[in-house]
Design brief:
Helix content is about 20%, strand content about 25%. By secondary structure, it is an alpha+beta fold. The radius of gyration is 19 Å and the shape is globular.
Length: about 180
């Protein structure tokens, strides 16, 4: 299931979306309302809300997507080219980044990569959604762009064994 956070036109509230195929995005909250005749749970406000709901929320979302995947209702389906994307995890409590995590970037900046991972933190308000312009501060001397794999952690954990690490990964996205 490919999930995203979007709004219909940039002026409406954000919604949880599921990318179906052929450029179609399902509004999960509206699909829930149509299928069950009730207001959707708060879990269906964004990808971040869904992850906060844990496995029960994810199971329900899968059920709604499966039920609605054949729909043609224009109130529930949107063209991926006409929606406004939002950062997938909303106001994530932490955005951790690894610095100098590959040799070619370290060499380009004349820096020696660390033997151990070195993390720095970013504020979630600095996340730029898909297709949105990247804004550089007027005071910036340099705007560095690097394509990165972003790992979205789906549940809390601490001192996790290597063999169990993937149980905590909700998904992946591309980051710059």
């Amino acid at each position: 299931m490919k999930l995203l956070t979007f709004s219909h036109n940039g002026h409406t509230g954000v919604s949880l979306g599921a990318y179906l195929d052929e450029g179609r995005v399902l509004d999960v909250a509206r699909a829930y309302a149509g299928a069950f005749g009730a207001q959707a749970p708060d879990w269906f406000g964004s990808v971040g809300d869904l992850l906060a709901g844990g496995e029960p929320a994810m199971t329900l979302a899968r059920s709604v997507v499966d039920r609605a995947s054949g729909t043609t209702d224009p109130g529930v389906l949107h063209d991926v080219e006409r929606i406004v994307f939002h950062p997938p995890v909303g106001n994530a409590p932490k955005v951790l980044c690894v610095t100098m995590n590959y040799l070619s970037h370290a060499q380009a900046t004349l820096t020696k990569p660390s033997e151990d991972p070195y993390f720095f933190i970013k504020m979630s308000s600095l996340l730029t959604p898909h297709r949105a312009p990247v804004l550089c501060s007027r005071t910036s001397q340099k705007c560095d762009s690097e394509i990165e794999l972003a790992v979205v952690i789906g549940r809390r954990g601490k001192y996790i064994q290597r063999e169990e690490a993937m149980d905590y990964v909700a998904g992946y996205t591309v980051a710059n």
